[in-house]
Amino acid sequence: MPACPTPTRSTPARSRAAVAGLALAVAGALLGAAPAVAAPDAGAPGTVTASAPLPQDLWYPGTADAQRLTYWTTGSNGEPALSTGAVFVPEGEAPEGGWPVISWAHGTVGLGDDCAPSLVGPGSRDRDFAYLGTWLSQGYAVVASDYAGLGTPGTMPYLDGKAEAHNVVDMVKAGRNAEPSLSNTWVAIGQSQGGGAAITTARYATEFGGRELDYRGAVGTGVPAYIENIVALAGPDFPPLALPSGLTAYALYILAGLNAAHPELDIPGLLNDEGRGWLATAETECYAPFKASVGGLVIGSLFDKPLSTIPNIGGVLTDYMGVPETGYDKPFFMGQGLKDTDIIMPSTLLLGSTLARNGEPVTFKTYPTDHSGTMAASLPDTVPFVRALFDGQTPGRSFGS
């Protein structure tokens, strides 16, 4: 077990009340709209504190209406936390029972508040607009969390799987609270950071969603797998080579997110002055400019002491960002690009094979493309997979290309 045990997910009413006033004030400032009237249990997951129309330049193709929401969820410490997100309603008339829901988990956009997709759109506009437009065209509503701390108080705990799972689940609740045409049946879908979030959500969705939601399954592409084993090696003796700038940006985001989730570890205390400076920059910069700025940076040069000086750091990291290997109750799909250099094939293949060996309901397929290309390449498989989930069918498990 980690040296720092996972906080309890139950929250005293007193804690909820203490942050309720802040929630409403921040919500109004973020959305430029008058906050909604708080419910008596304002901290209940999925409670919407503010809503406003989403600017039409951020609508995915096939959207008939869209809103930006601020809602309650749960953060890394198990306490109530605010998140923002967006709800996209497809064109046409809702079917009986309401629009089935896709809860979209986005990939890396950065940690700064001005990186939130509900404010500025997705990190890769052309790719994500086409991909999410496909799901809207299938007759699904899309709800999309920004994740707690991205556009709301605090720093987003980057790759904290359980916190992201809470955010993804509670975004479905918030979407239904704001838009009555949404059904309670839903599927989680994500890419990259969001791929890990979607698969971790698959492990906890039934537990976190409770009786009010009808969770059916999940799809994750470019799923980060066993990254925690590499992060645990970070320190002054890390190979003295500059990684590709994207991987360096990811590494610093992980350190910043871990520091936000576990301040008791004192991550800044392991870094030198240059390292602390880059850590602070990681907390505020969006991915594209940050990736450009860290080109040529050597990770090992930022450390005075290795992460291994933290007792049981392996357990801490596994609890924080490891994708669960057991405990899934609904079918889920993992897609991996053979040419992916962001999330390498061997690590995801190991995760997929471990899940299959453990008897988990996984479908694993590979595609002859890169990290981003896997999203579109997987659609001929994932569209019928998701349709079967919503139709109450159980897709057969498979493992192959």
Q: Approximately how much helix is present in the residues?
A: 25-40%
What does the radius of gyration come to? 20 Å
| End-to-end C-alpha gap | 36 Å
Number of helices: 12
Major sheet strand order:
1-2-3-5-4-6-7-8-9-10
Which regions contain 5 or more consecutive residues with pLDDT less than 50?
1-42
Class by helix and strand content? Answer: alpha/beta
Overview of the structural elements:
A ten-stranded mixed β-sheet has the order 1-2-3-5-4-6-7-8-9-10, with helices on both faces. Residues 1-42 have low confidence and may be disordered. It has 401 residues and is of the alpha/beta class. It contains twelve helices and ten strands. It has helices at residues 13-31, 117-120, 125-137, 161-178, 193-209, 227-231, 245-261, 273-282, 287-293, 313-321, 345-357, 373-390, and strands at 48-53, 63-74, 80-90, 99-105, 141-145, 182-191, 214-221, 332-337, 362-367, 398-400.
Task: Summarize this structure as a short list of keywords or feature phrases.
alpha/beta, 10 strands, single chain, 401 residues, disordered N terminus
List the helices and strands and how they pair.
Elements: H1 13-31, E1 48-53, E2 63-74, E3 80-90, E4 99-105, H2 117-120, H3 125-137, E5 141-145, H4 161-178, E6 182-191, H5 193-209, E7 214-221, H6 227-231, H7 245-261, H8 273-282, H9 287-293, H10 313-321, E8 332-337, H11 345-357, E9 362-367, H12 373-390, E10 398-400
Parallel strand pairs: 4-5, 4-6, 6-7, 7-8, 8-9, 9-10
Antiparallel strand pairs: 1-2, 2-3, 3-5
